[in-house]
Design brief:
mainly alpha, Four Helix Bundle (Hemerythrin (Met), subunit A), 8 helices
Length: 188
């Protein structure tokens, strides 16, 4: 992963500019909007992000720059599908509870972003409704985890589940947005 757009570099630039979010939450919101049906070419995500994480104030240039890099990378990863989505979470060396908290922030962000773009859950498949219910449960996890192999495995499984569920949402709700790109008449 590009060192300029990893969890620490994004969290640091947000923190330096008094944005009340970490990279996990910001990335979750971004993914949620895209997976909930926002067009990949929609630039409104920046104002939505400022409204939800920066009291409606526009972001300073260094934050905007980082978030645009993250947005581009996220779109590319979602389009690649399979297992290419890299969630913005602390690396494996970080304490397990820091990673658990970041995962919870990512899931909360995802649900916020998804909800902004997909109010009609009746259109969603049973799998997506179930995943969103699970996300709701994950977002309320508050138990501190032990630093042991069992907790590591459990956290890893939840992270994989969240990633696969997000990709499922994108393939069902977000993929239709690719039509935006394909419907443009070709100029000969």
């Amino acid at each position: 992963m590009d060192k300029q757009i990893d969890y620490d570099s994004i969290t640091n630039v947000l923190f330096q500019h008094s944005v009340n979010s970490d990279a996990a939450e910001v990335h979750g919101i971004m993914c949620g909007m895209l997976c909930g049906g926002m067009s990949l070419t929609d630039q409104k995500w920046q104002s939505v992000m400022a409204d939800t994480t920066n009291q409606g104030e526009p972001f300073p240039q260094p934050v905007t720059f980082k978030l645009e890099m993250l947005y581009t990378q996220t779109c590319e990863q979602l389009l690649e599908g399979e297992f290419s989505l890299q969630m913005m979470l602390p690396d494996e060396q970080a304490p397990i509870n820091d990673r658990g908290l970041a995962l919870r922030n990512w899931v909360q962000g995802f649900m916020l972003g998804f909800g902004l773009h997909q109010q009609d859950l009746m259109q969603c498949s049973a799998e997506i409704k179930e995943a969103l219910q699970d996300f709701s449960d994950i977002s309320r996890m508050e138990e501190p985890m032990e630093e042991d192999d069992e907790s590591e495995r459990a956290l890893h499984e939840v992270m994989e589940y969240v990633k696969i569920s997000a990709l499922l949402c994108f393939s069902e709700m977000g993929r239709s947005l690719l039509d935006d790109q394909q419907d443009k008449p070709s100029v000969h």
